[in-house]
Recover the amino acids of this structure.
């Protein structure tokens, strides 16, 4: 055990014993890999997390379309039903690379039942592959995000072989086939494309890809009828139509559903968060690109002028060596400030994250690089004044000074913390606007609508093409 | 805004069919990194793009009472730090145009004039590019097709804000006249000319679309009473 670990253990033990914490409060899970003895004796040893978060809860059943009526209005549901009416009996296949974990699987878990409820039967298939395949697709993923990568013929062969195996295993009898991300992109290679609309849904940022990997994938992508990106800035120049589908959140999920104040209070009490004072929160993995150290620095600059607590809630420090290193850096810069609460939470703590976001006065997302930034969407949905970096898809969500505030530096972030805490009316107004922005553009129901619109549009294009030829 | 009005003089001959429009956003091929590049693209981009970045983007931000008018104004301020240009773009009222071509000419004129007076601004790289997008539009019916004024008021109160936007703002491009579907129906079918005029004068740039809905409903209620 390092001296830092002992410090953490002492600090969190003090907090759980309900003594006033004398140092930064750090509540985290144990790291079984690095502490085998502890795992052997007590796998639940977590140094400070409340017992309620130690095991995953049973997931609730997925909601039905009518459950969204109270949130988006009956008119929106009628629109969905009308759009689906013309597609009744048609079918969709969604293909991705994982059934559990990750934002795509989370989204498909909700999207597929809703489309099926609208009588557009939607089937979800997951590609299979060996470790060699997924190591290569992970490398492709990083390379498409801009990391350098030496693409070999062997890697190309493995990628294509597994795609071919999956193509032989799967049946493509649906009217629209949607392939998510690069892993299954080559499924289209030897398929009969005349029977279905083929759509490539790219969830990653392709603005600055490794040239060799992109040139390898591009010929497959160009065979699709359309491509979909999460932000204008993520797209490439392609000869096929490209559409913009924003990622979305589910307002009825554990992460986003309404919570009674008593539950929010209970969870804050469990984590030692004082709701009688302003709470500034960032929710994110302990990852350098999320700049948690910069958040602590901004908080410290702001704290010279305004009273507040800082909550850094996230995960990734237990199962990711880099995450553990980042957590140590955060703890170092937090030093002995008792108003900084660091929570290394297990991935199933959606309800706890929800409560912490709802208890917060301000939410920050000070990323140095970002995909779309769904934590920003979550914050806006809860009506929270949100400060976020102008990177990735965040400017699609935050219209500066109208639905939140955009910043470019630690100093800018610090100033906005001060400003929002001392101008509650302005803070309230951007919070209200932010929630409306999400309601209009970034909810699951809007996502369902976009898929229905796209299917209709492709059907009409096919019909026009048929007539003209 | 409220006007004295004679009682309703006639029953409508034609029902008012409340429709709504939905949009599928396409990412265009044009991208501009400077104001000069925006000027070039403004002159050549499809009408759909001009529509998207003016009419449609106003709809996307219908919940904002003030401060958002169109994407060109917003980008000029936050990506180019050109507040004077942003104010000029923002001052363009899309309801003064009954065709996209006129709106395009106005935007080009504003930017061209600006770049003549501030020629160094034209080549300065923006913080982020302007991506030209466009919309595929699908018009859909709603359950509301009243043939009475009371039914019309009920429809106004119950349809989505997208439907209000469709009839009140986008209608100009369909009608090719300085009016909207609500005013046209009230005038031609019911004879409520003053109410129609008052509705036409509602300021969309200092109201949310919900606020517009409430004002229309109030004016119709007053006419009914």
């Amino acid at each position: 055990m390092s001296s830092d670990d002992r410090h953490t253990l002492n600090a969190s033990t003090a907090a759980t014993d309900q003594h006033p914490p004398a140092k930064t409060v750090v509540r985290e899970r144990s790291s079984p890999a690095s502490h085998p003895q502890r795992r052997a004796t007590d796998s639940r040893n977590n140094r400070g997390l409340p017992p309620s978060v130690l095991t995953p809860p049973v997931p609730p059943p997925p909601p039905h379309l009518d459950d969204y009526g109270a949130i988006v209005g009956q008119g929106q549901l009628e629109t969905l039903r009308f759009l689906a009416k013309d597609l009744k009996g048609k079918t969709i296949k969604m293909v991705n690379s994982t059934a559990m974990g990750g934002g795509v699987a989370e989204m498909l878990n909700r999207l597929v039942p809703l489309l099926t409820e609208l009588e557009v039967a939607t089937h979800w298939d997951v590609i299979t592959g060996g470790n060699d395949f997924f190591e290569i697709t992970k490398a492709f993923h990083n390379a498409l995000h801009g990391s350098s990568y030496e693409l070999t013929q062997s890697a190309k062969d493995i990628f294509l072989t597994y795609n071919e195996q999956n193509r032989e295993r799967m049946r493509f009898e649906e009217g629209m086939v949607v392939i998510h991300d690069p892993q299954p992109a080559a499924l289209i290679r030897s398929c009969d494309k005349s029977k279905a609309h083929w759509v490539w849904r790219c969830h990653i940022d392709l603005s600055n890809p490794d040239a060799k990997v992109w040139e390898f994938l591009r010929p497959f992508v160009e065979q699709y009828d359309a491509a979909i990106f999460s932000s204008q800035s993520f797209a490439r120049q392609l000869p096929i139509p490209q559409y913009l589908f924003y990622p979305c959140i589910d307002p009825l999920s554990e992460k986003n559903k309404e919570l009674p104040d008593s539950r929010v209070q209970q969870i804050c009490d469990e984590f030692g968060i004082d709701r009688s004072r302003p709470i500034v929160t960032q929710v994110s993995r302990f990852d350098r690109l999320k700049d948690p150290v910069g958040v602590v620095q901004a908080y410290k600059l702001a704290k010279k002028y305004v009273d507040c607590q800082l909550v850094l809630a996230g995960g990734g420090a237990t199962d990711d060596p880099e995450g553990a290193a980042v957590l140590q850096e955060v703890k170092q810069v937090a030093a002995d400030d008792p108003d900084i609460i660091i929570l290394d939470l297990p991935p199933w703590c959606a309800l706890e994250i929800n409560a912490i976001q709802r208890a917060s006065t301000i939410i920050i997302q000070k990323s140095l690089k970002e995909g779309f930034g769904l934590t920003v969407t979550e914050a806006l949905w809860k009506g929270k004044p949100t400060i976020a970096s102008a990177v990735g898809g965040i400017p699609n969500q935050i219209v500066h000074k109208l639905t939140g505030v955009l910043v470019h530096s630690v100093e800018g972030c610090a100033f906005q913390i001060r400003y929002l805490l001392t101008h509650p009316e302005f803070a309230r107004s951007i919070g209200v606007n932010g929630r409306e922005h999400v309601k209009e553009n970034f909810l699951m129901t809007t996502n369902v609508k976009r898929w229905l619109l796209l299917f209709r549009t492709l059907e009409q294009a096919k019909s026009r093409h048929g007539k003209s030829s | 805004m409220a006007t004295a009005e004679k009682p309703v003089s006639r029953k409508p001959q034609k029902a008012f069919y409340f429709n709504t429009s939905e949009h599928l956003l396409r990412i265009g091929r044009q991208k501009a990194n400077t104001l000069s590049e925006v000027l070039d693209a403004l002159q050549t981009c499809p009408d759909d793009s001009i529509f998207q970045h003016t009419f449609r983007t106003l709809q996307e931000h219908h919940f904002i009472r003030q401060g958002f008018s169109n994407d060109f104004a917003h980008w000029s301020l936050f990506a180019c730090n050109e507040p004077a240009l942003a104010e000029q773009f923002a001052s363009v009222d899309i309801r003064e145009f009954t065709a996209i071509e006129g709106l395009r000419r106005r935007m080009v004129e504003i930017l061209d004039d600006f770049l003549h007076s501030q020629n160094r601004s034209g080549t300065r790289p923006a913080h982020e590019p302007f991506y030209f997008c466009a919309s595929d539009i699908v018009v859909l019916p709603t359950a509301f097709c009243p043939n009475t004024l009371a039914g019309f008021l009920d429809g106004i109160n119950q349809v989505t804000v997208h439907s209000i936007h469709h009839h009140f703002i986008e209608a100009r491009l369909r009608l090719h006249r300085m009016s909207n579907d609500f005013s046209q129906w009230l005038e031609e079918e019911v004879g409520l000319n003053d109410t129609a005029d008052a509705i036409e004068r509602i300021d969309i740039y200092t109201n949310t679309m919900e606020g517009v809905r409430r004002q229309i409903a109030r004016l119709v209620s007053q006419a009914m009473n």
